[in-house]
Design brief:
single chain, mainly alpha, about 0% strand, elongated
Length: about 120
């Protein structure tokens, strides 16, 4: 009985995690889109290509994350605790990646702006 309860709890946790992840993904996507819009408004046509590239990268990242989540889900049944750890790690990693991307974008935009001014 106890075991059953434990299993149930684990499952619940898992579901919650998944939900959270999905939510996060959505949020990220929205943020990216907003950023893109802003950029488009700010920049000239020259920048369009670069923007597209960035967008693609972001999308790819999202996809990768999704895939990872799925993999994790599979693994979960076997190793719950490890799973949690990995999730945490992944969260960190993704956040870092996104931050990096943002930084890159900012830098590139500033550079281009400077160029344009000259």
């Amino acid at each position: 009985m106890k075991m059953m309860m434990m299993m149930m709890m684990m499952m619940m946790m898992m579901m919650m995690m998944m939900m959270m992840m999905m939510m996060m993904m959505m949020m990220m996507m929205v943020v990216v889109m907003m950023m893109m819009m802003l950029m488009m408004m700010m920049m000239k046509t020259k920048m369009m290509m670069m923007m597209m590239m960035m967008m693609m990268m972001m999308m790819m990242m999202m996809m990768m994350m999704m895939m990872m989540m799925m993999m994790m889900m599979m693994m979960m049944m076997m190793m719950m605790m490890m799973m949690m750890m990995m999730m945490m790690m992944m969260m960190m990693m993704t956040m870092m990646m996104i931050m990096m991307m943002m930084m890159m974008m900012i830098i590139t935009t500033t550079k281009t702006k400077m160029m344009m001014r000259h």
